[in-house]
């Protein structure tokens, strides 16, 4: 029973990341889009940890912590923004928020 | 043993991630995301990051997802039935781009790994070692992060505060 | 204690910070009290330092204290170092002593003015900057004080912010000074480039080694001293930069006293004396200094003859007296220049404060011809101003007699002097006596022409006490520099260590007999008395003759009145020239053609292409996300191609 090569972890991270990207582009519900972002962040975390093991560097773990903290902060602000959007236009459709049209 | 665990939980993670994106109702997406996070926590543990795995469960699957569920319940979003999609072309153009990204990423990662990698040299990282690094080398970023969180809290409060207009 | 002499800087700075930061909310009594206390403390401290300083042997009267290294860049080092030698000692005592009296006087003069905290804060800052200037141990720190003094004068001249003329005068003072400051800075650069140091001690020692003999012609030293002298003409209001000082009368009268007596204008004289080691080796520049001094003294004294504004008379008088000082410096008699600076500080402060007292009584009526008959209601002011006038006119045995006479004697006797300087100096002495007596007769005698009544009195002890003290000082200050035929010149001996690196032209050694010196002094005294008598004849009783003269020779009168139309000439040639250059070349060609062309061209370029770019800004989040993904993919593709 050998260990799983790091490449497999990296591939898994890539796949999860792209699923997140696709979700963000395709879905129109703000909350689901937001969850896709969380998915992308987790894929990145997985990549960090895979490299950490490959190069035996603990620093990557620290970065994962920071990503988590930032994700938490982002969730707080992002969800507040979602509430604001709902209150403002009574919809969660991201396409309705296109006032910044150039 | 590791291989079995990896492939099982990798499959669970990919499957639940797909469900997150494909579910019509946001609540189901959220539950799928929790499952995905759980599977990832197992993989983190496998990678020797026991502390991160624990935090993944507590912070992500616990705190952040609870926040999501709160908002979902508060807003009670219908199944995604919005008006006609004016940006369908964008979305359709985005998907090949995403696929292209996946392709590139899968090519890039092996290129960045050390030659003949796969035999890891790591060991289980004790929280002690992490703590040492976190509070010595990364003390300033750590403190800055706490300010970031403070700002985020204030920002959230200000954004949600009901303004009579 | 003496090594802590630089602590004298602390009280004025503290006073400035206190009044500047907290003064707005405090009652006037505390504001003015704090302002006076700060300077008073500084003065007392310096007196204690002086008591210790004077007991040191002459060779040790050169205390340098390095506070910290201020700038360090490559081979360039600027220390924050302070120097206490006889020159800075005497300057500091004058600045804080006279400054303190002016502060006390201000409490009465400025009573009821709004923004008192501003006034006292600036006043303290002024004293601080001037102290810094004379205490600085190198040219760069001196420059800090130099600029600081300029700034404070700007702030105080423009103190009456609601008056447009005050703002204009402040700007004029600032801009004119800026011309001098630029030259000064260039001079400092040149010093560093040539000698590699700006510290006074090591610089002067180097100069005395590398240039043992004075050298005529356009040497490096000549260039340096010329630039420094141009800087000095700015601060000390000499030709060609004298135009700001008369306008500076827009400030409150105590400020004028401060600028004219203790601070600011003396800075230029101080600079030249401080750089005596350089000047004494550039005889051609010294000659220029003397010529400028003589010309300024003559021109300003002539202008002062016909001024109607009491403060303007005093202002021109200051310019004229500064001309005297520069004349002394120019003939190589550096300590004589400081001597006159010292005595002048007392009687000019006295005269300005006295004028302020008159203004208080007359509700700020400035016109001499609408005064008169004040001698009964302003007894103290009247007699103290007489003391000041007599001192300024050089009546024996008051202070001005000794210092002015020494200047005249040096102008004649020094190897660098010339009889022409002496004659011009005599004429100025006569003119000085004339215009000062004219001022006194017009203001205090004759029938009142002001409509403020016969009754009325002095403004209180805060006014009369400084006047009395200054009158006392103006009377006896000359005793520190008795001429050779009377005894011992203490000041000369005291200042000797300052000039140890200067080239000795043999100025102080007397070349002629005492009898000739006495004769010269008698001539000066006679001329002064003559001037006073003429003023008495023309202005004491019958005042019709001056008017008739003015009507008879309107051209001469107008020319004198307007200071030989120098202001007009500057407006025409300098300001007008600049305007023409700006309009014809800078605006029409450079601005419209080059700058506007470039800007408008850029703008139209962007306007044309922005329509295309705007299409991308659909406002749709998912579109943006797709773009980002595309970009990320391309970046990764590039990385892949690089890594292989």
Structural class based on helices, strands and sheet pairing of chain A: mainly alpha
Number of strands of chain C: 2
Low-confidence stretches of chain A: none
Q: On the 0-100 scale, what is the average pLDDT of chain A?
A: 85
Give, in spatial order, the strands making up the sheet with the most strands of chain C. 1-2
The CATH architecture assignment of chain A turns out to be Orthogonal Bundle
List how many beta strands of chain A DSSP finds.
0
Tell me the helix content of chain C. Answer: over 70%
Q: What percent of the residues of chain A sit in helical stretches (DSSP H or I)?
A: over 70%
The mean pLDDT of chain C is 83
CATH class of chain A: Mainly Alpha
Please state the overall shape of chain A, judged from the principal axes of the Cα atoms. elongated
Which features would summarize this protein structure in a list?
heterotrimer; B: 165 residues; mainly alpha; Four Helix Bundle (Hemerythrin (Met), subunit A); C: 644 residues; 2 strands
Structure description:
The complex is a heterotrimer of chains A (102), B (165) and C (644). Chain A has three helices and no strands. Chain A is mainly alpha-helical and 102 residues long. The radius of gyration of chain A is 17 Å and the shape is elongated. The mean pLDDT of chain A is 85. The longest helix of chain B is centred in the middle third of the chain and has 26 residues. Chain B has six helices and no strands. Chain B is globular, with a radius of gyration of 20 Å. Chain C is mostly helical and 644 residues long. Chain C contains 25 helices and two strands. In chain C, helix 6 runs antiparallel to helix 8, helix 14 crosses helix 17 and helix 15 runs antiparallel to helix 19. The radius of gyration of chain C is 29 Å and the shape is globular. The mean pLDDT of chain C is 83. Chains in contact: A-B, A-C, B-C.
